[in-house]
Amino acid sequence: MADRTAGKTGEERGAKGRHYREVPFRGGGFAPRHIPYVGVAVFVVLIALLEAGARSGVISNLTMPPPSAVFVALVELAQSGLLWKHLQVSLTRLAVGAAMGAGAGIAIGILIGLFSYIRAGLLPLVAALFPIPKIALLPLFVIWFGIHEWSKFALIAFGTFTPTVVATFGAVDNVDRSLIRMGQSFGLPWLSIVRKIVLPGALPGILSGLRVSLAIAIILLVAAEMLGAEYGIGAYILEAGSLYDLERLFAGVTILSLMGLGVSWLIGRIEAMLLKWR
Fold it and tell me: What's the whole-model pTM score?
């Protein structure tokens, strides 16, 4: 009988009977995995520890009230109707001031990143303004714009403006230059290169900068509302602190924390919508 292996190579004959296993894909590029409920579990454990510490006396109620008492204060604030009044005023101030500052910051940052003369003229000015503590300028804004809403808008806008400028022109600078050269080699107009290459490439850095800028805006919102404001979360915290009402004070801090989580969630939704190409 003819040898059935005749005509086969040595590798083919040696492969007979071997078992191959699939090699896992190792080119994920450090893509983050979505792991649900872990963040919630961290909050639950932390709150449980604080509750246990406050009830056992390890944590003095004179310095940290139990989370259950803070929750009761939040419920009472909501039932009184004052929560929505404070929130409406604060969110309006935050939205107007942050929109003014972030909008101007993104525009100026893009111009600094694209044009050498604008960079040479404005970058030293931005570098000089950036380290100034914005809260220290609140009395000046009160003198300029009065004690009412415009001084609060101006403080939040100015505090949001400078970090947004720095993040934006840094993001424009970090766009891959080989992509820009490729567009130029294909004869793309300047405006098309900016619109199709530079801005999409800079968008992740701009949105990351907005996370920081909006967190600064919330801090400045509280500072602005502690001066001459009847309503607002900052005014509520100041009133609770002056009365040494720790439950209400921590209730106000909790609201600010939830506002920060809401802003972070909103930026995340915008990233998911605008950065699908990643």
Answer: 0.79
pLDDT at res. 1 = 45
Residue closest to 179 by CA, chosen among 153, 198, 159, 158: 198
| Contacts with 48 (C-beta within 8 Å, 6 or more apart), sequence order | none
| Three-state DSSP state, 7 | coil
Tell me the pLDDT tens digit for each residue of 33-83. Answer: 777 788 788 889 999 998 898 888 888 878 888 888 899 999 999 998 888
Comparing C-alpha atoms, which of 225, 211, 230, 205 is closest to residue 268?
Answer: 211
Domain covering 62-274: architecture: Orthogonal Bundle (1.10)
The per-residue DSSP string of 28-58 comes to -TTPPP--TTHHHHHHHHHHHHHHHHHHHTS
CA-based max dimension of the chain: 107
State the pLDDT confidence band at 163, using cuts at 50, 70 and 90.
Answer: very high
CA dist., res. 139 & res. 161, Å (int): 19
